[in-house]
């Protein structure tokens, strides 16, 4: 009888183990069934996130290129303005140089005229400058 009870206990134990294994298998299947829609949704969300990251990177590149183009345009405009101002400075420098030469010549003429008048003072001669530039009476 003891053997009989031991056999029954062993059978019950085996049945319980098989039942527990089957319950685990059923639980895993049910879990997979319940998680499948969420896993699919998660996969779709991952794809959307990747697509947004790609768009963000593309947008960032476009903004950088637009900023570079805008900055280059501004630099080109400033370079053009600088070149125009350099030309104007050169032109004014030439005019100043020419004017200074003319002034030096006119001053030299005035000095020469004064020296001639001083040298021939009392002779009754009248000396005048030509009708260009400054007209000076001494």
Count of distinct strands: 0
Total of helices: 1
| Helix and strand pattern | H
Mean pLDDT score: 87
Account of the protein in words:
It is a single chain. This protein is mainly alpha-helical and 138 residues long. The protein has a domain at 1-96. Helix content is 86%, strand content 0%. It is built from one helix and no strands. The protein has one helix at 2-119. It starts with a helix and ends in a 19-residue tail after the last helix.
Summarize it.
The protein has one helix at residues 2-119. It has 138 residues and is mainly α.
List the helices and strands and how they pair.
Elements: H1 2-119
Overview features:
138 residues, mainly alpha, 1 helix
């Amino acid at each position: 009888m003891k053997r009989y009870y031991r056999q029954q206990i062993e059978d019950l134990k085996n049945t319980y183990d098989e039942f527990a294994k089957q319950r685990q298998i059923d639980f895993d299947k049910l879990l997979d069934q319940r998680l499948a829609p969420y896993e699919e949704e998660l996969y779709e969300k991952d794809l959307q996130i990747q697509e947004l990251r790609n768009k963000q990177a593309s947008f960032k590149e476009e903004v950088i290129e637009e900023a570079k183009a805008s900055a280059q345009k501004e630099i080109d405009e400033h370079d053009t303005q600088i070149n125009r101002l350099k030309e104007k400075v050169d032109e004014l420098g030439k005019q100043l140089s020419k004017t200074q030469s003319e002034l030096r010549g006119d001053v030299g003429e005035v000095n020469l005229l004064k020296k001639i008048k001083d040298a021939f003072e009392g002779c009754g001669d009248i000396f005048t400058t030509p009708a260009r530039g400054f007209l000076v009476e001494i």
